Queue: 3 jobs
Job 1
Amino acid sequence: MAVTRRTGILIVLCIAAAAIIIAWRPTVLIYGIQQAGLYAAIAIPMGLVLGIVHIVNLAHGEFMMVAAYATYFACKALGMDPLLAVLPAAAVTAGFGWIVFQLTIKRALKAPELNQLILTFGLGIVMSQGVNLLFTSQTRKISLDYVSASMDIGDLSFGIWSFVFVAVAVVYAYGLKFFLTRTTLGKAALAVGQNPRGAAIVGIDVNRVYGIVFALALALVGGMGALFITKAAIFPMVGAPFTMKSFCLVAVAGIGNIPGILGASVLLGLSESILRAFRETRGWADIVFFVLIIVVILGRSLKWSFPLKGRKA
Amino acid sequence: MNRNLARILAALAGAVMVTLPALAGAYPLQVARNIMLYMALAVTWDMLLRSGQISFGIAGLFGLGAYASILAVLRAGMPALLSIPFAALLSGVVALIIGFLILRLRAMYFSIVTLALAEIFRIVIQNLVDFTGGPEGVIMKGRIFGGSDSGIYWLTLCGLFVALGASYWFEKSKIHFALTAIRNNEVSARTSGVDIFRWLLLAFVVTSTIQGFLGGIYVQSYGFATPDSVFSADFTLLPLAMALLGGIHSTVGPILGAVLLGLASEYLKLQIPYGHLVVYGIIIIIVILFMPQGLLGLFRKATRGGKGRAS
């Protein structure tokens, strides 16, 4: 089968590349993996929404940005640690997402796909510009001691805090897989994703499932928003690149293939990390995702034997 | 009756446009120029939308044209007036190459790739520091026509007429039928012998060429270009909101939307210097949810009692 052979070649290539990088500059590999974890943890909820609700949420990164801002102000006001805010942030963002879904996206579900794209684009603009309006474009950051924790192996020293993103990404991916295949609600969601009409016929309330899945995805995004602020500075436009990179990863993995997002983000994170390692190529790192999306999607569209709607998670 | 009314309105608008430089001062001219520029961009966005493809890449091609024009003047010593068609040509060629790749994508894939275009072009420009001036951008010694307001006004008007002319051509020639067929149903269009890829490529290249042309005009009238200014998301967002508000799939809709939102934006800019774009986001959401055919659609419904167009 073409899929397995291609995957096999890809894995061999990845291992070879990783071996070369380890021998040459281990920190590049480590930071690449950490970055990959961050990308994957943000992309997985988008993959969930795209696979089940069939909506490209162009406001995806903006939802994370809003969650990060909410966490920031909550932590500033209460003197709380952002880590404690992960679960509340997830809950609040899920509620926010539920409301946004009921008020806007639900009404556009029956509309042409392009209307949904423009709608979520508009939502993203409202969120990023709304934050810009309320809190200005000043960057904000919380300094935390444990973020700068580092580890020494021989003469090699590197930050370890960002491995938390990797852990979260893995938990998200396999937690979702468990949810979708083992729980009743998850199975219903999967059925709706595969065939909404068929799911409705067997008695699943499709719109309710859509709402729940959207809220669940936003809970995951909200949790990441709280975690994101431990590491990075935030500003109103901080979410936008994550929307595009998340879509890139979801498309590369194939819609519906949630664990595949992990592999795709390793590819993206490592490539960016390699480019960032050199002064001359540092500025070009943000172009990788574009090259990736073009190459992979075109490769697929040229070979129709390789459908975009691939395996379901 | 209705057609006559439209003609009278068009004639009136034309008269106002032609006499404006003689009557109005610098500030109204500046506002008029902005509106015309965004109007032209809105029309080009709508031209591609008629084929059912949403492009979020207006700012990308626009900024590319802007840089092509200013760099042609600065680096190659090209006359300013000639650099504008050169910018159009370059944007067209780039669009042809990119179109060959990305027009095989459909719907959301196409849209997202175009959304990334502005960002990609910006990164490329920013990294070619020696040639493009990098993040600080480049400044010309003087503006076109010695910075004469009326000269720049006529130039922008010329850009607008190019866009409107192309849109009219798209509406009245067989391109209209090809694009509408593709938008309605690709499979049935293909079975009727419509070469989908060719028509989409034509629409994409023509609209990108005009966007590059407008970028050239924009940069020549301000005399400087930085990645942040010419690839600004405004150049995607405003035309999109204008076309949607006015009514998509027509030439009149974007014009109407551009006049309304263009005037409103001048007011908003003064009231809310930062974050006034939030209004455009809200307009986009409201239009998509409650009046997908825009103001023009509402107007048609009101005048014809809900019946569709005769033709």
Job 2
Amino acid sequence: MAQTTTSWEKTGSTTPTVQTGRNGRFLIGGVLILVAIAFLIGYGTLNNAQYFITVDELLTRPELVGKTVRVSGAVIGDTISYEASTLTIRFTIVHIPAQTDNLALTLHQAVNDPAASRLKVVVENEPMPDLLQNEAQAILTGRLGEDGIFYADELLLKCPTRYEEALPEQVQEASAN
Amino acid sequence: MLAELGIITTAVALLLAWYAVLASVWGAQSGSERWVYSARNAALLTWPLLTAACAAMIISQVNGDFHIEYVWATTERSSDIFFKLTALWGGQAGSLLFWSWVLSTFSAAALLWNWRSERRLMPYVIAFTMGTLGFFLILNVIIENPFTRLWQYPNGQVETALFQPAGAMPAIPRDGRGLNPLLRHPGMVFHPPTLYLGYVGMVIPWAFAMAALASGELSTHWIRATRRWILVAWLFLSLGLILGGRWAYDVLGWGGYWGWDPVENAALLPWLTGTAFLHSVMIQEKRGMLKVWNMALIILTYLLVILGTFSTRSGIVSSVHSFAQSPIGPPMFAFLAISALLSIGLWLYRWQRGELAAEHHLESWLSRESLFILNNLLFVAITVAVFWGSYAPIFTELFIGEKITLGPPYFNSVTAPLFAALYVLMGIAPLSAWGRTSSKRLGRAMLIPLLLTAALVILLVVFGMRNWMAILGYALVGFAGFVTLYEIWRGVKARAQRESWLMAAWKLFGRNRRRYGGYVIHLGVVVIGLGVIGSTVFQQETQRTLAEGEALTLGRYTMVYDRLTRAVAADGRVMTIAEVEVYDGNRLVATLRPRQDFFPNTEGMNTMTIAGSYSTLESDFYVLLVAWEEISQAGATFKVYLNPLVNLVWWGGIILIVGIMVAAWPEPDRLRAAREMSAAGATSLRV
């Protein structure tokens, strides 16, 4: 390794002053890299941040019309329609609170609550998702139009706790045998 | 009977695990061999006990003992035997039991293999592995016991309990509910267990690192013991990630394989820090540097594994993978906090005592060390970016009161430049030397790969590619690939003067498994990179409703809709199958059967869209049956993707796995001794 005399570095590397100078250079280089990375993450965050809000919030804050937001609500099964030729999905979601301990119960109550606020949703250019059904939780990314309809670019669905926590219903019948 | 066996064996394993923690620490502190041996025996005994518990569950699932709630929830009579055997990990409680079993297996293997060679570390290895196992067994036994059974009161009310409540009779449903349809896929057999093996495998390196910190035995022992284990864990984690991508591609029907879903990210995060460690550990071995940093990486990897397990299972992130919201959240969070405090505390203690001081300093930016440090910075930067993106909704809600989410565009725009920089390093670092390299020497070594890269760019442009970002991507990835191939070729050529090429390659790889295994891994990553660029930048899609006999064209392929059929499978699913013919020009190349499965007996999540795909190395013609006219049978709607080069992702994955196996394969002792003797000499060979 001693033979590397044509290095782009300055020669003479044993004196302590050069040592600190070198450490300083590594330090500056490292800080520059960290700043670049922080900038990349910060810029990406600001550019792609989506506010996660409830149906109530979306409907009561007019400044959000036309802005990209993420909204979550309970799907009403009877309102789902699908136009296969244009791949357009239409349905209505009901407000659910942001925090809930029992999602399945919250979804069930929301769908059966006539007083809760509702939002019509249009999703274009998507195949009919397997999970789009009554009392599913829909997480939508898109914009509320001037017409009061929510135009979603992305649709994420969850039918969660019902699946895991339910108990068998046919037990009674079974043990009666 | 089997349920009782399961309850008792897991409970005894829980007691043994905690006994092993106490006995091993006491033995190490007091210097009493008897206590250490007793702790070892207790730790080893958890394995047969948990194996029996898993066997009890699997036998119950195969026999259809629906009295056990978990069996009822994950199997049904008509299930394939295949899915009955794998339903162990089909839900929360069973997969936790499987988690514990895997950890017990790894712990027992580590205790048996490394007992003599790392004798001073072993008491603490017992303590840290069994502490982790003991915690998971608390979840298994007390909070999410998979052997919980169904009971019925005379008034018809059904309840779950471990043991028969007073006044209740056993409730035995006639049939089970069956596995969630999305899980009924061959991927189910391999993806969860490989991912768990990778995840849980990361506990072992951490236990060795913590043992080194706790015992003060901070020489190279823990590194030597850790290296093989982390390679094993990394092998399974890589395999799990690849299989997960393939499963998503086959079943989730959106034409992609990676969606930056929080749970996918949870598996990616420890993979990233583990990859960083695999690189930086070489600097510690060769130069005695980065001791503080390597410890930090191992601790971080472990904490990310626990955090990932916690966030997937507690329902704090929304994802297609999420288990139900579950009471295991708070105890898991407590465990995460305790292990973080303990790990970081021990690390700071040794650091502040100067026991992790570096033996060398950086000499030049152009050295293998600095390039590896850059590599580590990039891996950690990607980790931070992915971590922030996955947990942003939680942090922003906590600190600014509004929930902000970051979608796939965030991940793509932030990680793409970082990954690109990693490919550049992958090209330069193997050519650099330890200590320092002159820029002239480095330039000379890069000449041929650079020329080949230039040729690649010219070819791409000549063949009509005008997307400059993609060309840049191909150039960077291609450069890394050419360097790797060139390095392998040089190594083989040097030997081939004496023997045949094949023999030379065989011996070269056999004698330098880590180095050439590493090169093969790099090649795998290069091939994956080519596939990712091709399938994301050049993906085409279209959708149409076609009448029978009608056709649509996408790229070079034409698809003709033939007819729609119905079939009912043995497990009761109703399959609607569209038959389509795919033509390349005028030549019929494939008949595809994209279909939709409907599970009439299942409530919620009861349909599944399965793509039909015509695969060549060049592209996938990927067809989804989206909708159809129920009565007239006149038309059906298809969504069709053309995914160029997507198969390179899978082929690259296979190359990667082969490379890890080359690197991890045990060397004959004589070779290892020789290599360790000449470790210093080997570095100067490169200069």
Job 3
Amino acid sequence: MFNFYLLVVILLISFLFFFIGLKEAKKLRLVYKNNLHSLPHYYGFYALLASLLPSLGIYFLMTIGDDFLFSHMIKSYIPDEVTNAKDYNFLIALAQINNSVEGLIFGTPPQWVTDAAELWKSWVQTSNIIVASLCLLTSIASGYYGFLKINQNFRSRNAVEKIIMTLLAASSVIAIFTTIAIIFSVVFESVRFFALIPIDEFLFGTVWNPQFEGAERAGSGQQGLSQYGSIPLFAGTFLISFIALCVSVPVGLFSAIYLSEYASSKERALFKPLLEILAGVPTVVYGFFAALTVAPFLRTTGSMLGLDVASESALAAGLVMGIMIIPFISSLSDDVINAVPQSLRDAGYGLGSTKNETVLKIVLPAALPGVVASIILAVSRAVGETMIVVMAAGLAANLTANPLEAVTTVTSQIVTILVGDQEFESAKTLSAFALALTLIIITLCMNFYALHIVKKYREQYE
Amino acid sequence: MSDKANDFKSLDLTVGDVFSKEARLKARNVNVYYGDKKAIDNVTIDIGNKEVISFIGPSGCGKSTFLRCFNRMNDTIDICRIEGQITLDNENIYDSNIDVVPLRARIGMVFQKPNPFPKSIYDNVAYGPRIHGLCENKEHLDSVVEESLKRAGLWDEVNDRLLSPGTGLSGGQQQRLCIARAIAVSPEVILMDEPCSALDPIATAKIEELIHELGNEYSIVIVTHSMQQAARVSKRTAYFHLGKLIEVGKTKEIFTRPQHNQTEAYISGKIG
Amino acid sequence: MSKKFINPLEATELVKNSIKKRRAKDNRLRLYGRIAIGMATCFLLFLFFSIFTKGYPGFFQYYVTLDIKFDRERIDPKGDLSDTSLYEGEASNIVNESLFSIINPQGRKAKKEARKIVSSGKDLRIAKLVKNDPSLFGTVTKVKFALDDDIDSFLRGYINRDTPESERRISDNVIAFVDKLSQENRISYEFSDYILKGSASGNPEMAGIKGAFFGSILTLSVCLLIAFPLGVATAVYLEEIAKKNKITEIIEVNINNLAAVPSVVFGIMGLAIFISIFGMPRSIPLVGGMVLALMTLPTIIISSRAAIRAVPPSVRDAAYGIGASKLQVIFHHVIPLAMPGMLTGTIIGMAQALGETAPLLMIGMVAFIVDVPNSVMDPGTVLPVQIFMWADFAERMFIQKTSAAIIILLGFLITMNAFAIYLRKKLERRW
């Protein structure tokens, strides 16, 4: 609540400066008979921005910074007998203190935790006072500075526009920061994982059997029962993706051909959005559908045919995922088929070829790169898909090509490892980040290649 | 190269009198590049006070590009680069401390295709005065809008539907609306880039009449495809070919006694 | 040329002979296309049919009507209607007594089983009733209580009374009690007031989506407040302001790549950056909204850029021609004209965010939280995650509740998408 009030007060001060600036500019305008460089409200905006931006900057820096500072400062208040203990972990101690600060007290925490929490609370109060006074002072001081700059020759419009342009440019950099954040969050942990488990074992091992082993054992590099060979996971991922492609490529491609070449405009208007609904259904719904409708259905059908179908078979997940990616293939293929110039079709029809011949021998070969790109994009979608496999595929890391057996995938392992309680520093937790890194690399490569093909293809017809 | 030498070179190229006694706009040795391509080659010309001057020439000769240099519209194109000097009342408009915004308020522009904003007729005309803060109150703004529409000869046709969208007017009306919009900010010079090329003959006739009238108040530079139009509306004419200014002179003389053989070829229909 | 040119007559003949085969091929391709479309449509219909038939009963449940003696002494021992006082009261005993007076259980075991017939939320229900209307005290009023989920499933026919007692979830005793209750017309099948008003609960008969619903609204609000301004600002910068140089190119490639990153990876980033490094709490809508915002940002940027590109250059020229500055052109003309397209993209992005589950699992929004979140800093969950959690529970009744929650989620998604389509149709401008 404190933060909220502080922000409101800062906003109010900056609005005050807006009106002061506006009034001053109007006065100047009367004095100089319309010879003012900019419209009066730009002077107001300038004063507003001058007051608001520096204090907001200080506010965010300080609120982000104080946690770092406190957790560093608290270190010296943790008693020696705790820090010297064998299973001591600073992050756990910090979490205990933080919980106590937030009033989440489980059982009776040790005395030092309560003391440290009290200390922490007093620091928070002090820092609140410092932040508030600093922000308010800055907003008044910088607002006054902005006000002082208002005179007849000051180009306030240009100044305001420059600030806004900078803000716009800054927001576009968020995309880069996001990418950096993603890389940062997986690479560091992955490096630590590869320090524990050799990279070749991860990439080429055929057994995936992670266990929580306690931080100290994994830390000392001792090999326990755990094995981190990722091949079964990738095999499972690609098996499910392959099944999905077997469903979605024929259905998607034929739908695209039909919609772009054969369908009347009415049919097109009806079926195109209908196919796109499939892409809009949340994946958790598909997962539920796969686990509770498709999987039991396959199991009963299988047992009638005398086949033993696992209740969490790759087939169920793959089929449903196939349904999900139909629209990715159909709408992108539809786009590229439509982009084939009409003149090529006319050439075909002019020779007296049937629609079938025109489509298969002229249009489709011309559109082939785009179609391939759409399939690659669909595969990358399937590889990264999480909820369907979490809900419908199992957790058993079988290395098999039999679609009736249970397999597991990269994404479902990531979710299982990272959801819920984690052990700090354990190879199991870290393995999720290594899996994520591999997953990102694979999907990005596919995406890159697909976009490259599409771009080349577009250039061909432009 | 000294300025003198440059002047000499350009004068050597251009036939006729490029200078004007009461010059408002002066272009000196202007070169324009699109990337590596040279679009305007060393052009020097004056635009006089309250005179109507036409730029003619075959398509792609650079006349529109050159026109857009006068109000720095080429700034909006990234790859466009300009050398040389253009002055408005002896002030270099490409000087680094010149703000293009007031400059464009002084030098208005009307475009090839009528391009009213998708707003009401009133808002279209009032937009300029609003952003430049020309009017103190609503009544003043109303009278500016009315006067501009009257000068553009549109008032009688639209005074009962000022709040309906400007895009709903006919092509000729839209173009007159654009002219009204340009004169609402009280410019000193109006640049017109083939203002009638998208219009039918009747609308064209109305616009030409309007240009003729406006010529008493403003300096007008008009780029046109049609030699007849140039002959009808302007006192001076400049003929461009492949980015070069070939010949400048009184309109009558250019059309009756062209001095340069390329001008003659164009006028007699051999280039086009 | 060694071979002679084909004689036209001969050619006509050849074509004539083969035409039937070629036509057949043509028809076959058309048929394949129709089958493909038909299959896709069937998948869709089957998906919706299966969800709706399962989910529709989830909006209803069985209730039992009992005569409750509202005895103030026993329900509200402190007499101040406070939570602690009502908690100390013995409302459940009153309900059980009323129940026992009808079914009359004999023996300890039967009584124990009988107590479970009425959902364990009975005391809360009575507490709520007397809080809303203290004048109930001293009266005997008929009150409806939800039945336990096993009995609910039995009444729906999922539990067969012919199976041996040891193999079914409810005993013969309970079946007899339920029969007795239905003989007295005390059992009714009604619209469930828990599905919409209830929150997460381990008892399926009391579980509802209220908490998840508000969690979704809070999370989406955060997402919208972050993603929309950032997305539009980025799109405007890239289309209108940025010079075409290396940095712009890097940003563009970045945005395209972000659109391809699997959603679960955004969750990992949220976990590593927002929670581990910035020390934000787990499970809160603020972090969820931030993660979803970064995830939907590419969608919004890409569609906003397309919308900006569709604004004709003549409008910009016109504004520049009168002396508008770059920002005036952008804010007075380009953004208003591109707004419908930007909004459409944003709504589609929000629909995507509303249905997203995986990244939110990563940042701990999967926790079991009974309270409805009041602010973006309160722990909460969202609809799709609630669906995911319910789908994992073993109780039969949760399947119906899950499907009912899915229907509600799909309802919102369809509404949002329909609104986007409407907006596009309505505000679309032809230049």
